[in-house]
Design goal:
Elements (H helix, E strand, L loop, with lengths): L7 E4 L12 E2 L8 E7 L3 H14 L4 E3 L8 E6 L4 H16 L8 E6 H6 L2 H4 L6 E3 L7 H9 L4 E3 L22 E5 L1 E2 L10 H5 L3 E2 L2 H13 L4 E5 L7 E3 L6 E3 H9 L6 E5 L8 H9 L6 E3 L7 H6 L6 H14 L4 E8 L6 H14 L3 E6 L7 H5 L6 H24 L5 E9 L6 E5 L5 E5 L9 E9 L4 E7 L1
Parallel strand pairs: 1-3, 3-4, 3-5, 5-6, 6-7, 7-8, 9-12, 12-15, 16-17, 17-18, 21-23
Antiparallel strand pairs: 1-2, 10-11, 13-14, 19-20, 19-22, 20-21, 22-23
Helix pairs in contact: 8-9, 12-14
The protein binds S-adenosyl-L-homocysteine, iron/sulfur cluster and FE3-S4 cluster (F3S).
Length: 476
């Protein structure tokens, strides 16, 4: 893999705030005769997939451009999770297609979950794209692109039971060089009734652990100091050694990655409450570099709604899990995903969500209004009967409460000292650094001495808003 290629990934932060950071890019490769532009939407796994795509494109005669007007190939890595996500992407595709008026040779390709969900419709009926590749078809891109260049429409949306891209070292596209993702599994077998992911990403499969380890070691050598292990449900990671028949669990994998180096922080996302084990909690407690932070999506507080969602836990079970986490790791921060207005949700059900939020004391949450997705079990079985306006009203209430809880959570940190990994300059001032605590909170503080990004320092918290902390260095 050459480091000289010019690749740029633009992340649309509106689609999922989980993908944070500035537009990402690598150094250019002017020796390539054609240019491609790539844009990523959706979750962190999709972003990591774009790095796999960039690695596959490294084998071709395409250099990247950040300037869409000089692109010969435009790739859009798409998300289907909510209707709004698809609408935004459609508008972008129409715009890309309009560029063909001035440059008829441009090819537009759709990658990812929308390609999988809509299959050939974008190609044949709407005729707004030239090629489509589903999440398991990126090895086939050189072939698909060659076909599109020859004037044929090309598509591969085959979902695999085994593809994990474990032999492809992703071509790193982040700009800070400190924090990166490693996908440890693909697909999802859970069938939450509202969710399109099992249909767009296929069956769950875990990646061979030694390729994960090699990737983590490579990142550490390159100067990275934080890896986030990714999967739709990381706690059900399971790999069986074909030679010995021995199993590796997620807790064992976590410890293996944590041992790469004590200065390499390890995070993971997402944990399904039903699958996170005590062994995972003990690993967090026992290894300083496994971060004290768990994203544990609740979705809804009412046990009746949870059952309709097929989340397989009820309110009581979820709250016991939260208690177990705080008992074993008292300074652990927990965050959540919440959805308002799922089919048949009453005001009383909604109040149960608010109640659980108060008890769980999330440090932060991602919050959404339910969006009916064609093809999902909820779409087939239930009526999407909560009016849009009411979904939004409940959502505003959930957001307001979370802001209060986050604010109080951050106020409780005042006076405490945290070990902070420096990620770079703060957004507001070059005189300040921005870093993160183990609990995944952003801290801004004045620079001191010869500290640089990628270093750790100890910071005492002096103030906090609902979104971030401010502190001062107490020790170097
Ligand atoms: N695998 C992860 C979630 C992936 S999707 C997990 O199980 O937690 C990220 C979040 O999007 C979900 O947690 C859910 O809150 C939200 N989401 C999924 N489908 C949705 C839908 N149809 N409407 C609104 N939000 C949805
Ligand atoms: Fe979707 Fe549920 Fe799988 Fe998460 S666990 S990806 S919400 S089906
Ligand atoms: Fe979206 Fe697909 Fe991720 S639907 S959230 S990009 S798995």
């Amino acid at each position: 893999m050459s480091d000289q290629k010019l690749v740029q990934i633009t992340v649309n932060k509106e689609m999922d705030e989980r993908i944070q950071g500035t537009p990402l890019q690598r150094k250019g490769d002017e020796t390539k005769s054609k240019k491609f532009y790539i844009e990523s939407y959706g979750c962190a796994m999709n972003f990591n997939d774009s790095e796999i795509v960039a690695s596959v494109l490294d084998t071709m005669d395409y250099g990247n451009t950040q300037n869409i007007e000089e692109a010969d190939l435009i790739l859009v890595n798409t998300c289907s999770i909510r209707e709004k996500a698809e609408k935004t992407i459609r508008k972008r595709l129409e715009f890309y297609n309009s560029l063909k008026k001035t440059n008829p040779n441009i090819k537009v390709g759709v990658l990812g979950c929308m390609a999988e969900r809509l299959k050939s419709t974008l190609l044949e009926e709407e005729k707004i794209v030239d090629l489509m590749a589903g999440p398991d078809a990126y090895r086939d891109l050189p072939n698909l692109i060659a076909k599109a260049e020859g004037g044929d429409k090309s598509i591969n949306v085959f979902l695999s039971r085994v593809e994990t891209y474990d032999d492809i070292m992703p071509s790193r596209l982040d700009q800070n060089g400190i924090s990166s993702f490693i996908s440890i599994m693909r697909g999802c077998d859970n069938m939450c009734t509202f969710c399109v992911v099992p249909f767009t990403r296929g069956r769950e499969r875990s990646r061979e652990p030694y390729s994960i380890l090699a990737e983590a070691e490579d990142l550490f050598q390159k100067g990275y100091r934080e890896v986030t292990l990714l999967g739709q449900n990381v706690d059900s990671y399971k790999w069986t050694n074909p030679e010995t028949g021995e199993h590796m669990t997620f807790a064992q994998l976590l410890v293996m990655v944590a041992k790469v180096h004590p200065d390499m922080r390890v995070r993971f996302s997402t944990s399904h409450p039903k699958d996170i084990t005590d062994d995972v909690l003990f690993a967090i407690r026992d290894y300083e570099n496994i971060c004290n932070y768990i994203h544990l999506p609740l979705q809804a507080g009412s046990s009746r709604i949870l059952e309709l969602m097929n989340r397989t836990y009820d309110q009581e079970w979820y709250l016991n899990k939260v208690k177990r986490i705080y008992d074993i790791i008292p300074d652990c921060a927990i965050s959540s995903d919440m959805m308002t207005g799922f089919c048949s949700e009453t005001v009383e059900d909604h109040e149960e969500t608010l109640k659980v939020m108060e008890i769980a004391q999330y440090s932060m949450s991602y919050m959404f209004a339910y969006s009916d997705r064609p093809g999902t079990p909820a779409h087939k079985k239930f009526e999407d009967d909560v009016p849009e306006k009411e979904k939004k009203r409940r959502l505003a209430e959930v957001i307001r409460l979370q802001n209060q809880i986050s604010f109080a959570h951050n106020q409780r940190d005042i006076g405490k000292v945290f070990k902070v990994l420096i990620e770079g300059n703060s957004k507001r001032s070059d005189e300040d650094f921005k870093g993160k605590t183990s609990q995944n909170k952003v801290v801004n503080f004045a620079k001191k001495g010869d500290l640089k990004k990628g270093d750790y320092t100890f910071v005492k918290i002096i103030s906090g808003t609902s979104a971030s902390l401010r502190g001062e260095i107490v020790k170097q």
